[in-house]
Amino acid sequence: MSTTTENCHTWEPPESSFSSKILIFGTGFVALIATPQQLFFADTIKSVAAALIVQISLLTWLWTSRKNPTINWNHLFFAPLALAIFAIVSTTWSPAHTALIEAGRWFLFSLALIVGYNSLRQSDFGAIASTLHWCSLALGIIALLQFWVGLEWFPTAAIPGSTFGNRNFFAEFVAMGIPFSYWVLLRAKSYRAIIIHGISTGIIALSLMSTGARAALLGASASLPILMILTILYYKKNQSATPKIILATGIITTIATIGILGWIPSLNEGVLTENNGRTPIEKMGIRLKSLSKTETYESQSSFDVRVVGWKASLRMIEENPLRGVGAGAWNYNLPIYIPKEYAADVEHIWLAHNEPLQLVSEFGILGWTALAALLWLITRETWRSGRRLAVSHPESTTDDFQKLLVIVSIGILAITSLAGLPLHGAATTYLLAILVTLLLPTSSHNSIQKNSWTPDSSAAKLIPIAAATVATAATAILAFQALRADYYFNKGMQSISIMAKQKANGLQFPAQKQIEAIKDIKTGLSIYPDQGLFLSTVANDIGILRDHESFIWLSRLLKELRPNAPAIRCNLAIAYAEINDIASAKREISDIEASHQDSNCLLFAKFFLASTTNNTDEIIKIGINLARNPKRIDTDAKMRYVFETTIRTAIRTKDLNTAIETLNLRSRLWHDLRASSLYLKGVLLAESNPSKIVTEAMEAFISAIEAAKPQEKIQILQRIPVIYQSEVKKQAR
Questions:
Q1: Predicted structure pTM score
Q2: Which of 67, 212, 644, 688 lies in disulfide reach of 283, CB 3.0 to 4.6 Å?
Q3: Which terms are listed as keywords in the entry (predicted)?
């Protein structure tokens, strides 16, 4: 085997290969693939597609070049490869299942770089641009149909998500594709072609507007003036460029498409309920304008939730500067690092929503190194290509312009990564790998060294092919298992969700259905246990069904996955109390007190345990505390339970002051309970001195009558003690 280092003007693969066509096909296929009715989670099937495409393209390239198996490599390959190796090592101090997923992700990223570097040519840029453009158009049409008429082919958590199941993932991908759609527009040579491309580009832009995803919209908006400047420079040097009048027609067509279709109002109830704009243009305007409003940054807003995650990330970096908290361990460690003012209960933060921060917090110094390597590559290529385009290199104008479009696309990803999750989406991560390879082949201008490895013997030539074959087979097996896990979990989750709604509405369903749904969920989780926030959703639905055994099983699993999250242990303590396992409930509460004594959920868990054991002193002590601080209770149902239990206990124990104070607070919090609260307050005050009229009781009865609905007034009046009735009739309005 031999390793060579050569000086060269530029390195490109000798000829376009079938493996390059597979990689190019993947840029569109990974984004488009999805299953109706969510048989699998959107990003799972996209991740499976990306992994198989990378492996198949690798195997294809190795096989087609087996007679002359020279592997050219670049030092940048070591960045994702080092991240993959680190992820495997970090299983010694972080959860193995998430660390190994990170290892696989970065290993596949490095393989994509290797295959791309050895098979993609600069001339493939046009094919990549066309693939991304038409893929974005198809995705955009689906998204707009979801926005306008509620197309339900592909379930999405937030409308419109196209095939991504999430509008932010969709917006991030489409925004990254805008520079390539612009290239397709720029290369149209006839009026017919330019009008078609103008309309399609306008539809793509509209679909992005309809998401209202602010980071993606900002990234796309920031790219527009840069594209205009690059176009001016391109036209100065390229005599064969599309005539300006044709390009102007295309741009006008794009703007006209946006102007005509952008004001079509949505008929989708989900969009109207959000109240963020009825048309794509209106939604974009409202969402971007919201960045200047104070309420956007208030407590518990989406921005505030992100800030909590960012602060936690900074604390992770501060306390673990070298090795980080471990690959994929951000969620696992989050509750430890959440600022105290949030009482460590922010369970809906599942990812940092800032990719650089999460990368560094998980990988430590290696994360910094990977970011620095990417920044160095982008800076170097921006300087070289920008200088040549601006000064005097007409022979390389097209190549430099294309390279700068790639950099603009990566820049859009960089902007979205500051408040989004593009590196946690399979389609955007795959696209990033392809874009980096487009920078690498021509990054060796001016005698930069080319590195290559060539096996010396026939046996050695078979080693890469054998390794790739084994890796492809292993990937296929893992992919099958991942899809099985998703299928069973989704099937069970959807059934449980339907049954929970039926239960809440007083409807009946066969008990066997619930048993089968729980069995499906267990089957899916036995293959892969960490289904993120969906686990909490399923746990809540099982709680509604009053299936204590299954709820405790799932809560224990959640505790294993996130042992530092107090809310999970609080729910487990409550579940133990419900089945009268008081010892286990006390043990969980004791553990929470030791690690998160300021946790909001802790007080409610202690209150529930006290009510279960009929500890009246604790009920009144904790109950009045929670009643005075209702924001420490996360749901209305729990809040009502606290108030009702505290009031009943206070009345039973003759604690008049606590009962009256709790009733006063109850009357202020719930308008529908105001009349009954004031009536009961009046009764308690009247009973404290039944022989004469108590002024405070009279005032309470009058207020109760005034707060009551018309049909309730007579009923309340009839129940008021007789000595108060005549005066109440006179004074009540």
A1: 0.90
A2: 212
A3: Membrane, Transmembrane, Transmembrane helix
